[in-house]
Amino acid sequence: MQAINHAVTALILKKTFPEAPLLGLILTTEAVEYLWVGLNIVGLEKTDIGPEMQSVSDVHLVHMPFSHSVGTSVILAAVLGLIVFWHGGKAAKAIALALSLGVFSHIVLDLIVHAPDIAVFPFFNPSKLGTGLYTNQPLLALALETVWGILCWWIFRGSWGLLALIVTLEITALPLYSNMINAGESLLTGQDTIFALVILAQMITTTALVWLFARKRTEAQPNGNAAVIE
Ligand SMILES: [Zn+2]
C-alpha cells in the first residue's frame, strides 16, 4: 500500500487515542517500510523489478521475511508497546497501545493489496499471504486505497486541505497503478535499490505533509463558531 494510505491510518488512531503524538503515530504506520528500505539497501531483503517497470504489478517483492511477515510485525508492535509502557508517564498505556496498533496496521493493509509475498513468520512460509490485487487488479487496489484514505480523513474530521492532500497523492500515484499511463516508471526497471530510495523519499515527504495538514484541525462548535484543535 502506498505511503499516504498507511500514514492516514494514524488519523484514526489519533482520533481514538488523543494522548498519542500524531507524528509518532504516522511514523509507526510506516515502521515496517522503513525496515524494508534499510534491509533492501544492505541486501538482506530483495526486490526484483521487471521485465519492464510499468506499474506495481512489475514490482516483485521476492524476499522480505524480516520486514514484512505477520510474526515480525506482531513482535515489533509488542516490543515498541512494552518500551513505551515501561517508560511510563501519563497515559502511557493508551499511547503504548496506539503506537503498537500503528505498527501492526501496516501488515494488515499490505495484506489487502499485495501479491502473495507476505510470510506468516520469517522462513515459515509454506504459502505466502496477500490478495494479489497489485498483480491482477492494480487499479482496483488504488480505488480501495483511495476509499481508505478518505474514510480515515472523514473519521478524523480533518480539514479540507488534508482531504485535498490525500486525493492529490492518490491521483498522482495513478501512473504507478496503471500499465496504460506512464510517467517515467520504466526508468526504475532493474533498479531495486533506487526503487527503495524512491519509496523512502515518498514516505518522508508524506509523513511531513500529513503531519503538517493534520496537526491542526477545525471542528464546528455548538455555538456555531469554529475551533482549532491541536
Ligand atoms: Zn509495506
TrEMBL record:
GO terms for molecular function: hydrolase activity. Pfam families: YdjM. Keywords: Hydrolase, Membrane, Transmembrane, Transmembrane helix. The chain crosses the membrane at residues 66-87, 94-115, 135-155, 162-181, 193-214. InterPro entries: YdjM-like (IPR007404). This is Metal-dependent hydrolase. It comes from Pseudohalocynthiibacter aestuariivivens.
